Structures are given as C-alpha cells and as structure tokens.
Amino acid sequence: MVQEDPLVVHASPTKEFFITILIRDIKLIDAICDLIDNAVDGARRLCPTAKLNDLFIEIDASKESLIISDNCGGIEVSVARDYAFRFGRTKETPNSPHSIGRFGVGMKRAFFKIGSKIDIESIAETSRFKMNIDVNKWISPDNKDKDGREQWDFSFAECQENITNPVKNRQTIVSITSLHPTISAEFSAPTFKNKLIAAIESAHSKAIESGLRIRVGETDLSLRQISLLNSDSIKPQFTTTLYQKEKTVTVRIYAGISDQVLSDCGWYVFCNDRLILQADRSQLTGWDSENGDIEIPRAHYQFARFRGYVFFDSDDAGELPWNTMKNGVDEESSIYQATRLHMINAMRPIIDFLNSVDNELQADTSPLKTIVDNAKPIQLKDVEQRQTFLGPTASQIQQTAPKEGRISYTTANEKLARAKELLNVTSNKAVGEATFYYFLRANGDE
Amino acid sequence: MLVDVFQRLSAFDDIHNYRYIGFGSIYFSDFLLFHRTLGFTKMLSIENTRTAEEQDRIKLNRPYGFIQTEFGHSSTILSKTEFDDDRTIGWLDYDSKFSKSVIDDLSTFLSKAKSGSMYLASYNIQDIAPPQGVTEGRTPEERLEIAIGEGNKIYLPSNWRTLLNGKNRGTLFAAILKNKADDILMRRNGPLEEQSKLNIYPIINILYRDNAQMATFGFVIYSNREKELCDNANFPSLPFAKSTVDDYFEITLPNLTFREIRHLDQNYRSQTKQPWLPLPQSDADKYWKLYRYFPHFVETEL
After folding, report:
1. Which of A425, A342, A225 is nearest to B80 (CA)?
2. What CATH number has the domain bearing residue B72?
3. Domain encompassing residue B237
4. Which pTM value belongs to this model?
5. What would the pLDDT profile of A190-237 be if each residue is shown by its tens digit?
6. Chain B interface, mutation test: which of A329, A345, A386, A387, most B Cβ atoms within 10 Å?
C-alpha cells in the first residue's frame, strides 16, 4: 500500500457535494430556466444579429420525465468533451459574446436536482453525439477509472465528428427520467405549468421578442411587453452608463410609472437580457433606505405604479452582477453597487411624485391623477434618453385642474323651505347658489 | 473665505464655467456674492417650499434672471438635477441642526458630482436635536441615533461617544460626512477604470457663531486623472484649510473699532501690535488670523 504523504491535506470535491448539497440552493423552476438558458445561448450563437424566428425550444414536463428539445444549434462534441460537462468553468472555456451561461454549474445542478437518468442527444454543425448519464451508477463507489481512482468523467454512447449537419437538422434533446419523487409530484401539480410559463416568459422576454418560439407543453409562450407611462408632462428616465475596464459593461436604467399593481411594483434587473430579479421592493434595490424627509420607503400601495428596469449587458457574462442561480443580483458586485446609487437617485423624484398623487386623495381636485390617467404606455425601446423622471410642472397641473368645483351639504327640510321663501327661489340648487353668492357679497368679494 | 477656496478651483476649469447650487432663501446673499466675485451664471437655488405664495416671493427676490429656482426637498431636487456636464459647487447651508437630511444630500451630491466639484455643508451644532421624534428625556447618544437615522449609524467614528459635547460635535458631524463620502466613493469607483476613480480632499472644517454655534464642512472631489490639477490648486496653502475632520479652524472675531483696525493693518508686516495700542495681544492675533475676511462695517455718530 502506498504510504500517503503526511503533509497532504485532502481538498478534492466529493460527488455528494454536487448531487445533494449544491441542488439545495436552487428552486426547481430556476433549475429548468437554467437548462433553457443554454438553448437561448445556442440560439444567439446561431443568429447573433438576426431574428430568431425559425428557432424553438420545447419543454415538456410530466410525472415521469422532463424533456427539453431545441433546434438552437446543438452542442459540438469537442465542447461537450472538454467544457460543457465539467463542474465549473475553466479559463479555456470558449466565451460566447453576450451569453447567459457563465458559471459552468447550471446544467449539471439542474440534472441532479430533477432526476437520476439523463439522456442527451445533440446534432451540431460538425458533430453529433448521444450520452446517457445514470447518476446512481456515476456516484457508486464501484465507478472507478482504469487506475482504480474515483471516476468523475461521463462517456458518450455515440459520437461522430468531422461531419457536416445542415442548420435544419441541428438540435439538442435533453431527457431527464427517474425523477426524484418530490419533483415528480411537483410536475403533476396543476399549478406547476402556469408557474413555469410565467417564469420563462419573464426571464426570456427579450429572446421571445426576438422571435424565439418557446413552448411549454401545448402552450406557446407570449411576449410580456414592458412599458412605462409617457405624455407631455410625464416622461420616464432612461440613462445609459458605460463602464470600461478590461471589458465593457453597459448599464441602462429605465424608471417611471405604470399600472397601479402592487405585485408588479419595483425594480427588475436583467443581465444580458435575462431577467434575474423581478419586482424587487427591498433594500437590495434601494427601497426602505432613509433619506431625509423624502424617504425611499417600504413599498406601500401608493407607490404601486413605480417601475424600474436595469439592463446590464456585456460580451463577457462574468462581468455582470448575477448570482449563480440567476435569480438575484450579486450585491457585492462593484458594478451593482455603483448602479444602485443611480437607482436610488432615479427612484426619488418618482416616489415624491407618487406621494403628491396620493396626497390628492384628501384634496377636492385631483389634477395629478388626471395627468397620470391621460398618459399612454410606451414600450421601453421607444423611451427617449432622459437623465431624470419628468413630472408635470406647476402650470401643467394648474391647466389640468378643473375650473369649477362642487359644494354640497344637507340641511333640514323645514329650514330649506324657509330659505326658499326668503330667497324667493323654488329649487334646492338655487338655494345653494344664492346663499353662496350672498356669503361672498357679505364679505365684499362679489 | 469661500470665495478664496472657489478661486482655487480654477486649476480644474475656468471658474466662470462652474455651476453653483445653494439654498438661496429670499435673500440670495451667497448667489449675489459669488456672481459678483466669481462670475457664476449657472446657478440653482433649492427651496423646500410648496406654497405658491412663498414660491412667488422667492422668484420675486431672485437678483438675476439666470438664477434657476427649484422647489422641493433638497434630496429630491438634487437627485433630479443633471450633473454630467458641469463641475459643480454645492453649498448646502442648512438653517437646521445636523440630521439625516444632511447625510443623504451628501450621498446624492457625491453619487453624481464630477471631478473638480466641491461639496460644502453648513449646519447648527449647538446641540443634538433631531427634527422629528420625541427627544425629551433621551440621552445625547439616543438623540444622535434619532437625528442621523438608524441606517447611518455605520458612519459614526469609533470614538463618537467622546464627541457628543460642545465643539466636539463639529468633529463628530464632519467625521460622519467624511465616512459617508468614503463609502459612496467606494461604491461609485468600483467599476471605474483607475484614472477615472474619484477621491475627496477635505479642505473646510470651520466652526463659527451665527447666533448659534455653527459648522461648515467641505471637500473637493477629484479623479486620479486630475490629481495634478488638484495639487496645483494648492488648497493646503489656504490659511484656514483643514484636511482632517478632527482639526478645525475656528472663527472668533475680536471687537475692534475702525481706528484700531487701521493701526493693526499698518503693522501687518511684522504682525506686532504697536506698544501704545491699548488692546490685548490676543485680540490683535485674532484679527490678523482673519483680517482679509473681517466684516466691513461703518461707524456712525447719531
């Protein structure tokens, strides 16, 4: 037996870490979205500038299996062999500009989260392969390499290289079976499909907008349009900041008002067009931070119209402030911390405006509400650059305010009849008007 | 004194190109002074008033048509103000006691101001009295926490409990503002390339009396790219410049007559008092420390 070096301290990973520990950090729907991310990246690689009209991703979840198939370019054998199935991303991993996949963990974590048998079939431009992973066999102590060491690698079941596959034949089919019991139960739940559809529609609205067809079961996903209210007197903020170090990151901030729906109120953060944070109303995005008399408060109903959208874009996905599950921001990220300062500045005048709208509820007239009601939704792509949110000016408010007001009160019929007699009028309305002008004349105003 | 400081900013840019932001009130005295002495024409006055009558009064008293007036809370107006094109001098002269508004306005200003800009805040340090909240029966520590807000406690210096009394409060509040400024810049600088990273250079930490004990704290903002310009401005050579928060310049004015001032001026070179001048030496020393900024007044016989 080989004597171990007593100075060696073992730090190698265990398979259990990936199979039972890492999966606890991710929700099922986020795990499925991670698998879809790979296909969306493929679609963008295939058509970096053009529309994605001829491309599709189909997701079929049942009690027995999850099958995701797409025609978004396939995975080349060389990529599968050297990078795609490694745990973690190596420095040599080819980088697709503007990609979503970044960490080299999502796909494997999703497999282990969902089931224990995974079959992958891919046809790419110059190669094709089939691979079957049996997680229980892979994790078995008997799974050793030829030197008797723990076997980490997977094997292709079929593999062909140096061939040419036309675009129309290229595809990837991922099939996960032997689902974990909780996952199988979840897939059978009547609400699951709707939750999955909502999550994918939000996460990949930009890809859907570009023409990518995503289908869950029999349902084609639809585009969730993002819009903000706009008029002559209300205009959203739209600013672009470019951070250039070794890599360039573009940050676009849109902030304004929209429909009065509290559940939709808050900040939305996208990295390379992938939604990672939705309707956030926490300190993470600057809410509930004290700020003198004008606080950026906890989100109350009066702020339900607030919407903010932040888009971080870079050719190098590693520069962007997402967490590995792509369901939240890395708040320690320097680029996010700098952007958060801008988000707070963007929010402040809008909160101030919405407070003013709310204060009108106690007033007799509501010109601000009229101004908001008259504003029209405008899609983000049509919003013009503006450093700050524009609210109505005093003169615009004055113009909107009604020129006449209504007074009403009730009184005893006996007294009303006497007033009619004294004023020599017959209607209640006439009594109201006559007594009003009588009061003004008595004060020398008429 | 502030005019002297602002003139040094010409190391960064023609001083006429600077934009000035202040709280003009109905008197606009700072706006008048800085336009006359420095030629500022880009000037913004912020007033926290919402009544049409008060707003009309402020507009009526605007000494120059180029002075822009914005009405609302300073933090809202500052966050709405575009900072991209102009180097900005912001003198936020609060007529109130130190509070979280001061800290948060600093945050807004510094999150947007470009290199070559200057931030100044003046506030009452007579005591610690938060604008809102019940303070009766509370200890100074508790009042401070209410005044600056829970979220700003992280900006307290480690020795804050020893700085709750008298003029020490000047040091305490300057330290809070300095710590907040460092935090904002750390966040703002993170994604910037080295030459664009910003720094602050504290210059002003002045204590004075204006009915109550007051303090003014201020610093210049400069990027690594413009460090040489900041060095060229030679701020440390200003006789009242203070670059650390625990060192302040105190303005104490001796009571002097015109005749006494004339005699002292004549001996400026040696800065020794004429032996026959019946004045304490300490008054003469106080005068020479500030003689260029000594208030002008006229004696009259009725």
Report:
1. A342
2. 3.40.50.150
3. 2-250
4. 0.81
5. 889 999 999 999 889 889 988 999 999 999 998 888 899 999 999 999
6. A345
